[in-house]
Amino acid sequence: MSTSDATTPQRGRPTVLDRAAITTATFRLWAERGYAAVGWKDIAEATGISVRTLVRHFARKSDIAWVGVPAATRRLRGALDEMPADVPAADAVRRAIVASISDDPMSPAGPDWIRVVCSEPEISGTAPAAYRPWITELAGFLERRVAGISPTAATALASGYQAATFAALVGWSESGSHEHAADAADEALGWLSLSPTGSDRETAES
């Protein structure tokens, strides 16, 4: 995850929040005390940001868990936009998803993040809404690159890719593997195909 400005404990209201720093501090508290035991006051004390400011920027405590998803979506979009037109759609999607994965342990690919998300129903229950922009981005690419695919099918496939990627990351986290999270996702996604009949139906975007 990347940020533009750092926020340090200070008096008064900060004009820009360092959302990544807030996430890191909050995940540290969740890991030490458990999600349910950490309230807004605890997060405020750990970050130096008032409860009022925190709740103005995060409607729910669980929203803090998804701070890294917009950045991952931007990386996905950039990788898809730069993908050569002659790359088969399935390969293009796999490469772009792999490129969107960060090694930051508090990002939506790190083992600490995965453990908390998987163990807390309040967080996992908000996943569909959090990942909707990512899925929409990928679905748009599939509509442009796969011949004959409907918007409904493109969205379904994009949702499937998101689920498959997350499952691969969960398996990677639980295995204790020393390989990068992106490598685990790359290996898993390599088994997926976009051809419903086994023939090449894709068309490159002109």
From TrEMBL:
Keywords: DNA-binding, Transcription, Transcription regulation. GO terms for molecular function: DNA-binding transcription factor activity; transcription cis-regulatory region binding. It comes from the Bacteria. Residues 16-76 form the HTH tetR-type domain. The keyword Signal does not apply. The keyword NADP does not apply. Pfam families: TetR_N. Residues 39-58 bind DNA. PROSITE patterns: HTH_TETR_2. This is TetR family transcriptional regulator.
